[in-house]
Design a protein that fits this description.
heterodimer; A: alpha/beta; five-stranded parallel beta sheet; four-stranded antiparallel beta sheet; globular; B: alpha+beta; ten-stranded mixed beta sheet
Chain lengths: 222, 454
């Protein structure tokens, strides 16, 4: 039976060498489909926490479980593949692959998934079409900022991840586009049954989330 | 979308850098392959001209010059040899055969070799392979010529066409056409792949008569026209004025009566002797040859050259230059490797974000390492492929130049046993050049490179 828990963090600590804890989270759990806003000022360790959850950084203490598996117990390619298949990430600057079309950007995520290769294109197409991207052959620099954000969202959910980590997803957008983007991200995560952990210092985001916390409340720096 | 798409996009995204890198590898590979292919073919071509002769006897100053002049038609040999000297050599029991030759005349720039009909029976331009006829036969009487394949192709002469030979070469200021004597083409040879393909063969008697006639004219006080303008006017009368010296009217030869000249002993001069020593059955070399050559040098003062030895020396000299060229090609190849490394290294700064994103999407460090190494090797593969093409084109051009200017038929020979190592070497070197950028890619920090720019 599939675990309903998407993310579980216990006693997670991280510090850059010789410094105080950048991340200090006593406990945090997110069920599938649950959405949470994590706030904190600039340099408060929000992005580092997301990198720790994704297994991109090594914690000094504690554990991160994604879909029931301890992320840092996995090593090398095994962890990379697990991340690719179970964690979706959305960035402030989208981090789309330049020189690749919108369609290829979404297909790039599917390259590492369990989805058969012959289905990649169709699946990517369907996702982009669902998000209103018509010019799928266009490169990121040929798309508007809003369209780029939608491609980034499509890429993050392409593999049906268990958890989506959104790092300041609206910081590059105007308020109107920011609202639309958040609507999209939250809607897609609900639709796919993925947990959403969104970090942002934008106070306007608070109203969009029932569950909210600051890093300080979790035990880290405020 | 697969790994190859990522590599392809990376290469096309930096098209200028990719093209220049591929061209650098291609030039190095092309140069190396051309030099190696020409070297093997060159050795064969050098050996082809002297064929089955053991010795070349000449009045030239050195054995090397004797061979270059007597076999490769570089220039007309300087000093003549009296006929009785040839007869003396011919009579030596250690000699299997001796073929007298005389050079000095030409036709439209092609050298004339006046000799005896036996040359087509006894002398083999390539050891073990005799002459082959494309048309006609060897000369049997006076004022008949046989054309080497290239001379036939270059002049357009065919069987039964007539021509006048030029004394000297057409670019020689003292050159003039032997207008009184009309020669007829009686045979055309198939290509031998050697310098004799450029030759126009005729018999000694005719050449002696032509030169005796000139001697008599000089003695009688006739002024013979000299100069370039005459050298190109080979025709008989106005109707042939633009006929490049040969007459395609086949009846003409029969209408023309060549003067019959009484020869004196002084007219019977030759400029070289091809000698094959008598050997024991199955043996290629005569044990008596060194002594025979030494005696001949001491007795007559002639230059006695063993063409195979001279070609060996010449090839050693050429090989030394060849070593320098090959070393240069290897240097260019190594430079191209460095160019690949620099191109990829420089691209790393702009690719770090792409690498970080791919890592987030699920790509392992090893896969990223492999992508960069594959891209680097692919640059090598493309360079090697283009280089192979360049080498084929370069070989054809170089062989054309050698054929045109030196008369050497050097057809590039590609042996899989050395072509493959060169190509693999280029690809290996390219892959090696990708090592540093690949390690950089492997060690790229994902967290650092995902941060917003600015």
């Amino acid at each position: 039976m599939q675990s309903t828990q998407a993310l579980r963090i216990e006693g997670l600590k991280f510090a850059y060498s010789g410094e105080e804890w950048v991340v200090d989270v006593r406990e945090l759990a997110l069920a599938r489909g649950e959405q949470m806003l994590l706030s904190g000022g600039s340099g408060s360790g929000k992005s580092t926490l997301l990198h720790l959850i994704a297994g991109l950084e090594e914690p000094d203490a504690g554990t991160v479980e994604v879909a029931g598996r301890k992320m840092h117990a996995l090593h090398g390619a095994q962890r990379d593949l697990y991340r690719g298949r179970h964690v979706g990430m959305i960035f402030q600057t989208f981090n789309l692959l330049h020189g690749f079309s919108a369609l290829e950007n979404v297909e790039a995520a599917l390259m590492f998934s369990e989805v058969p290769a012959r289905e990649h294109r169709e699946r990517a197409r369907a996702l982009l079409a669902g998000l209103g991207i018509e010019r799928m052959g266009a490169r990121p620099d040929q798309l508007s900022v809003g369209q780029q954000q939608r491609v980034a969202v499509a890429r993050a959910v392409a593999c049906d991840p268990v958890v989506v980590l959104a790092d300041e997803p609206t910081a590059s957008l105007d308020p109107e586009n920011a609202a639309m983007a958040m609507e999209l991200i939250q809607g897609l995560c609900r639709e796919k049954g993925a947990a959403l952990l969104c970090v942002s210092h934008d106070p306007g985001m608070r109203a969009r989330f029932e569950r909210r916390a600051s890093l300080g409340e979790l035990g880290g720096r405020a | 979308m697969n790994d190859f798409t990522i590599i392809r996009r990376s290469m096309t995204g930096r098209m200028f850098s990719t093209v220049t890198t591929v061209v650098t590898v291609a030039v190095a590979v092309g140069l190396l392959l051309t030099l190696l292919s020409m070297k093997n073919a060159g050795r064969q071509a050098f050996e082809r001209g002297s064929g089955n002769m053991h010795l070349l006897i000449s009045g030239d100053a050195s054995p090397m010059v004797a061979v270059l002049n007597g076999v490769f038609y570089a220039n007309a040999p300087a000093k003549p040899i009296a006929w009785e000297k040839y007869e003396g050599i011919m009579a030596d029991p250690r000699v299997e055969w001796a073929i007298p030759t005389q050079q000095g005349d030409s036709y439209e720039g092609y050298p004339v070799l006046a000799t005896v009909p036996e040359i087509f029976e006894k002398f083999q331009p390539e050891a073990g392979r005799g002459w082959e006829w494309a048309a006609g036969r060897g000369f049997t009487g006076n004022f008949e010529v046989v054309l080497g394949s290239e001379a036939a192709a270059g002049t357009g002469l065919k069987l039964r066409d007539t021509l006048n030979l030029t004394h000297g070469t057409s670019n020689d200021r003292a050159a003039h056409v032997h207008e009184e004597f009309v020669y007829t083409v009686v045979g055309v040879l198939r290509p031998t792949g050697g310098p004799h393909d450029r030759a126009v063969f005729t018999n000694l008697e005719s050449t002696w008569m032509v030169h005796a006639n000139e001697r008599m004219e000089r003695e009688a006080g006739h002024d013979h026209s000299h100069g370039d303008e005459h050298a190109h006017d080979h025709s008989h009368g106005d109707e042939h004025a633009h006929d490049h010296g040969h007459d395609h009217d086949h009846d003409h030869a029969h209408e023309h009566e060549n003067p019959v000249i009484e020869l004196t002993d002084g007219d019977r001069l030759i400029t070289g002797i091809y000698v094959k020593m008598a050997t024991r059955p199955g043996a290629k070399v005569s044990a008596a040859m060194p002594q025979f050559a030494a005696e001949l040098r001491a007795r007559s003062g002639f230059t006695v050259a063993a063409p195979s030895d001279e070609m060996g020396k010449l090839f050693t000299i050429v090989s030394r230059v060849d070593v320098i060229f090959r070393a240069l090609a290897v240097v260019v190849l190594v430079s191209s490797g460095i160019a690949i490394m620099l191109a990829l290294y420089n691209s790393m700064s702009e690719r770090r974000r792409q690498i970080a994103v791919l890592r987030v999407l699920g790509s392992s460090r090893g896969r990223i390492f492999g992508l960069v190494m594959t891209e680097s090797a692919l640059l090598g593969v493309l360079g090697a492929a283009v280089g192979l093409g360049l080498s084929v084109v370069g070989g054809v051009l170089a062989s054309g130049v050698l054929r045109q200017n030196v008369g050497l038929v050097v057809s590039p020979v590609y042996g899989i046993q050395w072509v493959l190592p060169v190509l693999m070497g280029a690809v290996g070197l390219a892959a090696l050049a990708g090592l540093v950028p690949a390690v950089m890619a492997y060690r790229t920090s994902v967290a650092k490179n995902l941060k917003p720019i600015g």
